[in-house]
Amino acid sequence: MLKPETALLSVIDVQGRLALIVSGSEAMRLNVVRLVEGARLFDIPVVATEQVPDKLGDTVPEVVTALGDTPRLVKETFSCYPEDSIRSAYEGAKRNQIIVCGIESHVCVFQTVMDLLGNEFQVHLVVDAIASRSEQNKEVAVRRMEREGAYLTTTEMALFELQYDCRGDRFRALSKLVR
Are 126 and 39 in contact (CB under 8 A)? Predict the structure, then answer.
């Protein structure tokens, strides 16, 4: 089960025109924002990346707003893990559960998940907060990541798993977030 003290949220490349044209773009972007805002409720660190933003564009405005002052780390590799600054952010957080969202499911998300699994992280893939241009690419990527050891989850499932019970102000804030 996900636990706030052992989790980290990885927001992968929700940027540029591509973020607007992937299949299910609007729902995916809404769920990424919910995850970022949920991470804030639970004091979970967030690692956000951008793939060559000078060519592909910046992170979409609604995600930038949710991220606040969280830096967006630039990468040139498809996987986030080979980039020193990003790998250091993952490892430096001392969290072994990585909640993954972003685009594209079959390229950057897939390769990052494979590298995280290969480096003994527990990966929780948020299937309603990832996307590809085609549903087939997403579907095949999700099946492969699950087969390789990633846990499949949804935005609400992950957030309520982190909450665990229905008590307190955080639960009330979480309930409003997912409405």
Answer: no
User: For tokens 């997912």, what's the residue?
Assistant: 178
* Residues with Cβ within 8 Å of residue 37, at least 6 apart in sequence: 66, 177
Domain contains 33: yes
Report the distance separating Cα 5 and Cα 156, nearest Å: 18
Q: Which two tokens stand for residue 171?
A: 């639960």
Q: Could you report the per-residue pLDDT of 150-164, keeping only the tens digit for each?
A: 999 999 999 999 999
In a domain? residue 133: yes
User: Considering the domain boundaries, does residue 2 fall inside one?
Assistant: no
Number of domains composing the chain = 1
Catalytic center residues = 13, 75, 108
Sort 25 into a burial class: Cβ within 10 Å, 0-12 / 13-18 / 19+: middle
Confidence band for 145, pLDDT divided at 50, 70 and 90: very high
pTM of the model: 0.97
